[in-house]
Amino acid sequence: MTIEAKSDLERNLDQQKPSTFRFRNFFKTLGPGLITGASDDDPSGIGTYSQAGAQLGYGIGWTMLLTFPLMVAIQEISGRVGRVTGRGIAGNVCRYYSSKMLGVVVMLLFIANTINIAADLGAMADATKLLIGGPGIAYVVGFGVISVAAQIFFDYKRYVAVLKWLTLCLFAYVAALAVANVSWGEALKGIVLPSVTWSRDYLTTIVAILGTTISPYLFFWQASQEAEEERIDPDKKPLVKTPGDARSEFQRIRADTIIGMAFSNLIALSIIITAAATLHATGKTDIQTSAEAAEALKPIAGAFAEAIFALGIVGTGLLAIPVLAGSAAYAIGEGRRWKVGLARKPKEAVAFYSVLALAGIVGIALNFTPINPISALYWSAVINGVLAVPVMVLLMLMSRRKEIMQRFVIRGPLYWLGWLSTAAMTLSVLAMAVGYFI
């Protein structure tokens, strides 16, 4: 055998060797699912989970186990719709369903998202004041401007990479859990054994948790981000045009979504258990915001717990505000059939970026009004829970419509799990409404 032949053989053998696992390479394969899941734990969500743990203790932990498969199903369906059609949810609805219905949904989404942005900015400002002091309103403006400007002017690929690295800030809540004096037997019981109290406050809390974990803006964001693939990579087309890519793309979407939602629920559960072990255990049940939760931790779990809790609020806000503003811009832009996409230059999609900027500006402005956006943290989650129902029904109908999905209509367990998620959200909203008459 010649030297050249040996060299070729060695090269072929080297190519067949399994590559060494590298976290950085694996991290690069994750995308919309990871960012969507992490942004779900925004300051609004942190406030809701802290409130739930402080008021109800370990017994509310079961909601995280329940919501995990429901979140995975509805988010995977959202991702598939975007990747198959090359359009987001609103882009498909405006072509196949009532434009008036879409207009109402998009209007409510924009309102809910801007309130959520305002509340998140307020929470971030309060957390920063806990850490370093200073004028809170200046932090509101600073964080708002940075978040909006980054979306408009940063290179898309670089910006998405920044968002992905920001997800690591959520491990602050695992660190906070580590310093809490947790009764793990009670915590495990609360996770695996559902306990329901038929009262208005309890049922409202359930809807708030479901509204935080299964939020309409997450559906719009993940579907639109999957549709961005063809704008980012010229070799990629909607799967209706390149069906041969479907298997690998669906596998990627599923893995990305499962990891993102598991990460989201792990962090949410950490916050609930931390609040239950510290605040609920000491009778501190009147927590209203995430910043109050951070401040209340100091005399119980120490300054370290307060600091990492507050840092987590700032980091998650920087991750969530772009998703909130971006999902509103995608929904309105696709519904109006504008050119949309963060991969486009600002001059190529002026109307899209204008809506994105408007959402951020309104969110900042609400912090200057008599309306206290911080107190809206909990109720914004409830609003999202109610709004999620019609959006989820539309998404499920869309996923089975052949005109839209062609050969890739959603079938089997994923389809029925999607409807189960929709039914669970509907029942929780109805239970909350009934709770007001109990």
What does this structure look like?
The protein is an all-alpha fold. The chain has a single domain, classed as Amino acid/polyamine transporter I (Up-down Bundle), CATH 1.20.1740. 75% of the residues lie in helices and 0% in strands. It has helices at 3-16, 23-29, 32-39, 43-56, 62-85, 89-96, 99-132, 136-153, 156-166, 172-178, 184-192, 200-213, 216-227, 229-232, 246-278, 290-301, 303-335, 350-366, 377-399, 402-405, 412-435. α3 (32-39) packs across α17. The longest helix has 34 residues, at 99-132. The radius of gyration is 22 Å and the shape is globular. The termini are far apart. The model is unreliable at 1-19 (pLDDT under 50).
Structural class assignment:
mainly alpha
Q: What is the name of the CATH class? A: Mainly Alpha
- In CATH, the topology is named Amino acid/polyamine transporter I
Give the uncertain stretches in residue-range form. 1-19
In the CATH classification, which architecture applies? Up-down Bundle
Distance between the ends: 87 Å
CATH superfamily: Amino acid/polyamine transporter I
Domain count: 1
Shape: globular
Helix run count: 21
Specify Rg, calculated over alpha carbons. 22 Å
- Give average pLDDT, whole number: 83
Q: Tell me the strand percentage band.
A: under 5%
The number of strands is 0
- Give the SSE order as H and E letters: HHHHHHHHHHHHHHHHHHHHH
GO biological process, one term: iron ion transmembrane transport
Protein name: NRAMP (Natural resistance-associated macrophage protein)-like metal ion transporter
Subcellular location: Membrane
Keywords: Membrane, Symport, Transmembrane, Transmembrane helix, Transport
